Amino acid sequence: MNTVRRLTRSRWTIPAAAGALILLSFAASGLFGLTLPGDVLMVAAATIAGWRIVVSAVRALGAKVIGIDLLVSVAAIGAIVIANYWEAAAVTFLFAIGHALETATLARTRSALAELVAVAPDTAIVLRDGEQVEVSAMQVAVGETVLVKNGARVPVDGTVISGVGAIEEASITGESLPVEKFDGDPVFAGTVATSGFLQVQATGVGADTTLARIIHRVEEAQDAKARTQAFMDRFSRWYTPGIMLLALVLGLVTQDVVLALTLLVIGCPGALVISIPVAIVAGIGRGAKDGILIKGGEYLETSARIDVVAVDKTGTLTEGRPQLTDVIVLGDDLDRVDVLTLAARAEAGSEHPLARPILDAAAAEGVAVRGLPEHTEPVPGKGVVATVDGRRVAVGNGALMQTEGLAAHPALEGAMHRLADAGRTPMAIAVDGVPVGVVGVADSIRPEAAEMVRRLHRAGVERVVMLTGDTQRVAAAVAERVGIDEVRAGLLPEDKLEAVRALQAEGHTVAMVGDGVNDAPALALADIGVAMGAAGSGVAVETADIALMKDDLLRLPQAIALARRTVSVMRQNVAVAMITVVTLLAGVVFGGVTMAIGMLVHELSVLAVIANAMRLLRTDSAGRHRLSASPVPETLEPRALRPLAQKE
């Protein structure tokens, strides 16, 4: 019974049955001279192969859609009416084979989504009352402890609370190399433990896991239409009725019904209709396998036109973990510890992004920072002003010092310039309007940053622009090491927005890469907003136009190269489809192309555009290339600075 059910549901059952009847018809009429039984068998073949086509055409008409199925149905029924049974059987048989092949190959282009769904684990082992209990992955509660053993799939998103192990995260980030996991590290549902034993506290289960969000995003993206596809859909809505009208006029003028019916078959725009969506599905699927989530066909097309990439510095080109490197003392009444203490006390109540390295350095050196300042006044883009033990303490950049009346202090300016020239971010400390010192903070440049810029240029990006709130000197030092084309420094969040708008006004298609917090306005305005390291951020997965699941800059040029390849395939497919239709129509009008030959060529063109799109599923060796020898993260070392503990 199960075998019969599988056969009736198989995509190949109808073409096989129709093909067998056609062979029997040829045998009956050709070998045994039984014309009537041969005709009956041929009509039966046309009926078996064509009944689903007719049903589909009727349903489409009910929705006020005139599609390919209607053209084939009219042609096949017309051929039977004029007793051209072989043509009717051939058209429906070839159409049925083409449909089965399309279904099979389209399923192949959606393989990335199928693979993602396949890795979703069904069960989990949780620790309840000291006992190991196997439950459905959907039944795990947030906060429960899940056991992940060697070789098992991680069933939930969570945080490691005990144990050490290696996790292969290819299903999330596209990176095949296992990642070592220790206490406090995140793990994601669908990944595989390749060694060790982990206890994981569940933070996301079921539809709230990163894997579920990725699957949802890929489903939506593969169904979303590109602008070109929307245009082709509108074209098809006018083209198909136009072909039917042309066939009617041609039949009335020539009094040749066969010619009119043949024109209906030849004019089927099947390859044209499928040329765009199959490329989009394949391109987005390829990206998903590599940990690159693209929001939809429209964003894929836009990404292929990117010619300017704007990047933030801190956390994008650099590691985003700045450390205190220098403490320069101005004057003789204070020492290094005094300056560090003042800076730490002022920053204790601040949300300034560089407050953390100052506080960490103070703690590491045993500097006591007790309580909060009496008053804290953040100055966006400049620093912080605090009241500490009744004194006004300002910690920030040159712009803040200007507001404090210290714009022309030679020692202060000299110290800040030397730090900036060495790639440090200098912050001056002033007490009651008197400069007392300067601290320097440095971040490590990502090892792949320079390679990313080179690959972006190779991928067709004309300019890579740094948009940063840091000083011009620091930004220039980083840009020189990385190979950035243009630097725009000292920018507030609204300034970055204006910078993106200015680039767009110049006619550029702009991609913005940032951390999604301070850069949120610029990310929203850019033609393509790119979120990096989105594996741990559900918001980034849902909102970014392109989400790079792994925190790897090299995925950005890979994403742009993939978009360009996909759009190139789309154009090739449209060209193949148009050339096929025009050639066949000319063949019908001038003679030589029969209904069966036309349908055969038509189906071959459909398969050609699908096969062309499937090339996108192959791994792009250039895009996947990694640095042959990953350099040690480059720290911005000073060239002419005294040791950390030495006074100025």
Automatic annotation (TrEMBL):
InterPro entries: ATPase_P-typ_cyto_dom_N, ATPase_P-typ_P_site, ATPase_P-typ_TM_dom_sf, ATPase_P-typ_transduc_dom_A_sf, ATPase_P-type_domA, Cation_Transport_ATPase_IB, HAD-like_sf, HAD_sf. It comes from the Bacteria. The chain crosses the membrane at residues 12-34, 65-83, 235-253, 259-285, 574-593. The keyword Transmembrane helix applies. It holds the Pfam family E1-E2_ATPase. It is a multi-pass membrane protein. Residues 120-219 form the P-type ATPase A domain. It is found in: Cell membrane. Keywords: ATP-binding, Cell membrane, Membrane, Metal-binding, Nucleotide-binding, Translocase, Transmembrane, Transmembrane helix. PANTHER family: CADMIUM/ZINC-TRANSPORTING ATPASE HMA2-RELATED (PTHR48085), CADMIUM_ZINC-TRANSPORTING ATPASE HMA4-RELATED (PTHR48085:SF5). Belongs to the cation transport ATPase (P-type) (TC 3.A.3) family. Type IB subfamily. This is Cation-translocating P-type ATPase.
